[in-house]
UniProtKB/TrEMBL annotation:
UniProt domain MATH: residue ranges: 74-208, 227-343
Name of the protein in its database record: MATH domain-containing protein
Pfam families, A to Z: MATH_2
Upper lineage: Eukaryota, Viridiplantae, Streptophyta, Embryophyta, Tracheophyta
Keyword Transmembrane helix recorded: yes
Source superkingdom: Eukaryota
């Protein structure tokens, strides 16, 4: 054992151990990821892009719409219109707004405009949803929602679907979003599609997926202060008999630390090297999920020529009493060499 070797050499000097901290970071508050939903799109029937905008003169915004047929019916709300052809021949200013329905803890209405928009390729049916602004208070003052508008085709037994590729932001000053170019009027009236079926009926629907309000995060702060060294002098090193020794606590970056040394080595260093670690004090209390990032240098001092042996540490600390360091910090050969000046 190294202990016996030291006694034979009669090394009754002292060893100086130093630690020098360069910076510490603190991360607090549990992370909670906002869940998102994937889509399983059917084969697109019309990859055309169209304009998506707010209703009633609100600022328009361009965004790509994905349009396709799907089998699954609407998940938020559905409206069946009887005498559908009559609806399509009335005043161009006609608008139908459904009664309120609840999705994600908020009240919504579904709005259809049979003559909602006209472009160079013809007339379009427009579809929108509006959120009840009375529910936009406190943490719920902003709502993010994924929108899809649908109309049923009896001949295909599927729903023509217009999916907004952007998550829409609803708040007190923007309560309505939708698609001015939901489905072209001539396509809707096409007999082979059978959007109008069974004695002049048609069915429209909407999906609304509400995402939780973002109110959880974590904080990472960096302390760039270079702290002065902390020393620990082990006297009569050759007479040390315990497996390890721990220094008195010292404070750096608002946390308490200590040095831990194994005179006869630890792990791969047992019997051949001195092992040296810096540990977070056992008495240090951390917040839930708190962890500390440390850049430090560990040194064994050359007491003759100041050619100190030092090694860096860059590690996260999250458990009091545990730490990081080196199982083979300095070999017994170098430690016993009088020219090195370590003892």
């Amino acid at each position: 054992m190294f202990l016996n070797e030291k006694r034979n050499l009669n090394l009754n000097g002292a060893i100086f151990l130093f630690s020098s901290f360069f910076c510490a970071g603190f991360a607090t508050i549990q992370v909670s990821l906002v869940p998102t939903k994937g889509t399983n799109n059917a084969v697109p029937c019309n990859p055309q892009s169209s304009r998506l905008a707010a209703i009633n003169g609100a600022e328009p915004r361009l965004s790509a719409e994905q349009k396709f047929m799907r089998t699954r019916p609407p998940s938020a709300y559905c409206v069946r219109i009887e005498s559908c052809s009559e609806l399509m021949t009335r005043s161009p200013n006609l608008q139908y707004e459904t009664r309120p329905f609840s999705v994600g803890g908020f009240n919504w209405t579904f709005i259809l405009q049979p003559f909602g928009n006209t472009t160079s390729v013809g007339d379009w049916i427009s579809a929108y949803v509006a959120i009840d602004p009375s529910g936009l208070v406190g943490e719920n003052r902003e709502v993010y929602a994924d929108l899809r508008f649908l109309v049923y085709s009896k001949s295909k037994d599927q729903y023509w679907t217009s999916m907004d590729t952007e998550i829409r932001h609803f708040h007190q000053f923007r309560t309505t979003w939708g698609s001015p170019n939901f489905i072209q009027t001539k396509q809707f009236k096409a007999k082979d599609k059978e959007y109008i079926f069974d004695d002049d009926q048609c069915v429209f629907g909407v999906d609304i997926s509400v995402y939780p309000y973002f109110n959880q995060w974590e904080i990472l702060s960096i302390d760039k202060t270079v702290y002065g060294p902390n020393s620990w002098k082990l006297m009569k090193f050759s007479t040390l008999t315990r497996d390890f020794y721990i220094s008195d606590d010292f404070s750096v970056g608002g946390k308490n630390w200590a040095l831990k040394v194994y005179p006869n080595g630890n792990g791969t260093g047992e019997g051949n090297s001195l092992s040296l670690y810096v540990i977070l004090s056992e008495n240090q209390i951390l917040k839930t999920y708190e962890k500390v990032y440390v850049r430090a240098k560990l040194r064994v001092l050359d007491q003759k020529q100041s050619k100190h042996l030092q090694k860096p540490i860059l590690s996260w600390f999250d458990t009091p009493g545990e730490g990081f360091g080196f199982e083979q910090f300095v070999s017994f050969t170098d430690l016993q060499n009088p020219a090195k000046g370590f003892i």
